[in-house]
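Box 3.1 A note on notation
Throughout this textbook, protein chains are presented in two layers. The first layer is the amino acid sequence; the second is a token string describing backbone geometry. Keep the layers aligned when reading.
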Amino acid sequence: MKAVLFDMDGVLVDSEEYWVALEEEEVLPEAVGEGVVDDEEITGMNYREIHGYLDEHYGEHLDIGREEFEAYYEDAAEDLYSERVDLIEGFEALADDLRDRGVRTAVVSSSPIDWIGIVVDRFGVDEHFDALVSGNEIDGRSKPEPEVYEIAAAEVGVDTADCIAVEDSENGVEAANRAGMESVGYRTEINQGMDLSEADHVAEGPKELRGLLLELTN
């Protein structure tokens, strides 16, 4: 395999636990009421597409406008990424090893490009990536649609069949699979209930992920 494409939230940084808390405690109860939507349904989706998803599937419960809905995420993002999240354990050593093997790397996230920028700038990891791809910037829908991964493969100059995508959500795994990539489901404490059975591989925690990626790119 010639490229490794990392999801950001829940993979590159441990932000998913904060987003899940925000959605379960504030966003979803305000938008559709308590217990109507399982948070796993929207994990991995672009936040600007979630309101449309709720309207399509739970329209009879939806009681909040798009602008107010999106503001929950936008108000939380800068503080979350600049102050609260941590980088995945051992990432820089892994990135160095992948680079030594000639493996291309990218961040492929449903988050806006400026949120990705906060993360790579804060942790000084921009040099480790050949591309930063945001589902918020593409001409099309983000995960679980495959376009964001197809664009990422083109940007790093590698055929989709030679790419590995690391994802922590069902929507992300589906996007990678539909793009024709090898998919790795990344399991952490926060997503123990997530169904990652459609992934080609599942890695439990950063050490297992490192070993798997080095094996697949050997």
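The radius of gyration is 17 Å. The first helix runs from residue 16 to 31.
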